[in-house]
């Protein structure tokens, strides 16, 4: 009997499992899906949900409390939940209301991102680089730069208050959503701006309030729309800064001079409300004539001078002085100074007026050429010394000249510059005056006769008398007087006989007869040789006295001619 009862129970249990399995299989439950359930019971800690599975699912009551749904939940209420597991270790169904809400929110955000729709959310906390926004239990990131049109440090007035956002980035793989509140504000602003701009057209005169001032212009509020007033459109006169004529909060009247098609940016002008004084007065002034003017502004590249109301021209740095080329314009002219200028060029189309200050002054070059001529001797003071020249201020003139190191001494040594000092008064000769290049070349060595002139009338094979200056590694140095630099006679040119080419044979002060073997007038060099003279005299002796086997006779003849000892000093 007991066996029969056990068999029946086992059979009925097996049938129940089969029926349940069949029923569950027909429902196609899938983990991770959102399904609908019915509230079957509300306990103190849990809410029981019937999803027509093996068992009821339970959801902590705190989930409904946090979402403020607890008052709306009743037995029989329909609730969407996320099926996490069909059966856990204990055989229970695992469901989640919170995850279902998040999944719903994510789908909603995907749709909003694709269709660029607005979403409602609440800023709940601050994080690195921005803020956390709750959109239907979906946590999103709001960058600090996307909170408002301008960066703001304090947003306490926006916290925990429902705001409208636009989803600007969605990364499903990482689960990141980026929102922007600024995009919503820009849409509202642009919409209002378009409505206002549609009522404005170029050429209209509008009333506005100065909102902000920069170095290059000002922003003006015109019926809630920002318009730009550039510095060049504030006044016909040149101004240093917009703040010289405008102040924040000032009410102004301006003309709409341009509305850009794409960006709808508005450009305003105040000076356009009045007649251009430039065109009014420019025809009164002629190129090449001198006029009275007032210096209005000093710049690094020149100075601006005002000739008339609304008429201003530029005196370029090169037109300020005949002599001062590399000085700041502020060292020649001063603001508000009354001066005379000459008009060099008028460009009415570009509204440019080129002026000259130096042309109204006496040209020092003209006066210099009247008072000084090439080869004149003059005096001056050394202003500057470089590694290649002296720069001298010429006495009784406003001009400076240059003395190259090659024109200091006939020897032409760079070390000659070391003999001179600044502010030293020196004499010189004027070598060149070039007004076109504004260049004056001077020379000191030209004050004395060129010592090389000694050789100008001589020719190769002529004989000169030289005095030994001293020995050298390669021969001996001799001078021929007349302030000529020492000349080197090479060792192999000291004697015809190689045995007599000893440098030690020669003593400082000895007088020698030498032959000129080469003259380079351009290079200012001369070559001397004792050997060549001996060979010449040898040939002449042989021709005169006939040949001889003994060198003694020739030596007796040539000896006194070749070497003349220095005379003894008288006691």
Mind explaining what this structure looks like?
The protein is an alpha+beta fold and 571 residues long. It is built from eight helices and 31 strands. Strands 26, 27, 28, 29, 30 and 31 form a six-stranded antiparallel β-sheet that branches. The longest helix has 26 residues. The C terminus is likely disordered.
Structural topology:
Blueprint lengths: L1 H26 L6 E9 L3 E5 L6 E4 H6 L11 E8 L8 E3 H19 L2 E10 L2 E6 L2 E6 L18 E10 L4 E5 L1 H16 L7 E9 L3 E6 L2 E6 L20 E9 L6 E4 L7 H5 L8 E10 L2 E7 L2 E6 L21 E10 L4 E5 L7 H8 L5 E9 L3 E6 L5 E5 L20 E10 L4 E5 L19 E10 L2 E5 L7 E4 L20 E10 L4 E5 H16 L5 H12 E2 L7
Parallel strand pairs: 13-15, 18-20, 23-25
Antiparallel strand pairs: 1-2, 1-4, 2-3, 4-5, 6-7, 6-9, 7-8, 9-10, 11-12, 11-14, 12-13, 14-15, 16-17, 16-19, 17-18, 19-20, 21-22, 21-24, 22-23, 24-25, 26-27, 26-29, 27-28, 29-30, 29-31
Helix pairs in contact: 7-8
Give the uncertain stretches in residue-range form.
549-554, 561-571
Rg over alpha carbons: 54 Å
CATH superfamily of the largest domain: Nucleic acid-binding proteins
- Number of domains as seen in the coordinates: 6
In percent, how much strand structure appears in the residues? 35-45%
What would you call the quaternary organization? single chain
Amount of helix:
10-25%
CATH architecture of the largest domain: Beta Barrel
The CATH C-level class name of the largest domain: Mainly Beta
Roughly what is the average pLDDT, rounded to an integer? 81
Q: The biggest beta sheet, please?
A: 6 strands, antiparallel
Helix segment count?
Answer: 8
* Large-scale geometry: elongated
How would you classify the helix and strand content by structural class?
Answer: alpha+beta
N-to-C CA distance: 176 Å
Q: Give the beta-strand count.
A: 31
- CATH topology category name of the largest domain: OB fold (Dihydrolipoamide Acetyltransferase, E2P)
